[in-house]
Amino acid sequence: VVLIGVRDHLELWDSQHWQQYLTQNAPRFDAVAEGAFQK
Question: Is the model's pLDDT at 39 over the cut of 70?
Fold first, then answer.
């Protein structure tokens, strides 16, 4: 189990699903973060 804090709530993830999510989405994280701080 992976416990993630997201804004105003916590998320519990199955560790295999979390690793799959990271693998699929990690390439986008920098672009998303840059966009969030430009607003």
Answer: no
